Amino acid sequence: AALFMENARKSSIVSRANSIGSTSASSVPNTDDEDSDYHQEPYKESYKDRRRRAHTQAEQKRREAIKKGYDDLQAIVPTCEQQDFSIGSQKLSKALVLQKTIDYIQFLHKEKKKQEEEVSTLRKDMMALKIMKANYEQIVKAHQDNPDEGKNQVSDEVKFNVFQSIMDSLFQSFNASISVTSFQELSACVFSWIEEHCKPQMLQDIVIGVLHQLKSQPY
User: Which domain holds residue 70?
Assistant: First the structure.
């Protein structure tokens, strides 16, 4: 009996010790889990990653700008309109857009040069007409100042025809020799034309030829 009592007491002491140890162990935090969670620092972007991201964004913007430029060219240039029905709804290639744009610019340059030449010709015509108008007004004024000069005086129509024929002959050489690009060039061309095409003998030949031509016409 004494031995039984002693064993029971020891068993009770061991049980209480185990229960205390388990309670203490349960109250202590799990250091392994804490180290894995608590000491994990947030992700920081490295300098290399930032450069890579900035380069990607810059490349994307560059491609968008190039695409917008080609779209604007295709919208502005008339020859970039889709006319080949075999292509369907496909967009024009960048190379084709550039080629059509170059062709259109060259066409505009040719049209501009052609219009400048037409304007130059019109200016020459206008200058010649002004000269003819001023001379004819002088003739008319002289006729009005002497209305009773004689019954055998030729009509104004005949005088104008003579004047017009002479001026037409002179204007052919004038138009071929005069340039109106600038006032300096115009002045030089006018004096050169006068020296070359308005010599007394040349003017006399022109007038005689016109009078002979009009002599055979009835008035």
Answer: 43-114
Query: Is 95 within the bounds of a domain?
Result: yes
Which residue ranges of the chain lie beneath pLDDT 50?
14, 17, 22-28, 31-39, 85-86
In a domain, 201, yes or no: yes
Last residue of a domain, one of 114, 141, 172: 114
What residues contact 100, with CB distance under 8 A and at least 6 apart?
77, 79, 80, 92
Structure tokens at 151: 């019954």
Q: Tell me how far apart the alpha carbons of residues 164 and 133 are, in angstroms, rounded to a whole number.
A: 10
Gap between the Cα atoms of 99 and 19, Å rounded: 92
Whole-number pLDDT of residue 118: 92
**What pLDDT is attached to residue 4?**
57
Query: Is the backbone of residue 29 left (phi > 0), alpha (psi -120 to 50) or beta?
Result: beta
Q: Which amino acid is located at 84 in the chain? A: D
Domain-located, residue 88: yes
| CATH code of residue 91 | 4.10.280.10
Q: How far apart are CA 150 and CA 153, in angstroms?
A: 6
CA distances from 26 to 20, 21, 30 (A): 10, 9, 9
The pLDDT of residue 47: 81
Q: Is 139 part of a structural domain of the chain? A: no
Domain end position, chosen among 114, 146, 167: 114
pLDDT at 114: 93
CB atoms under 10 Å from CB of 105, counted, come to 11
Tell me how many domains the chain contains: 2
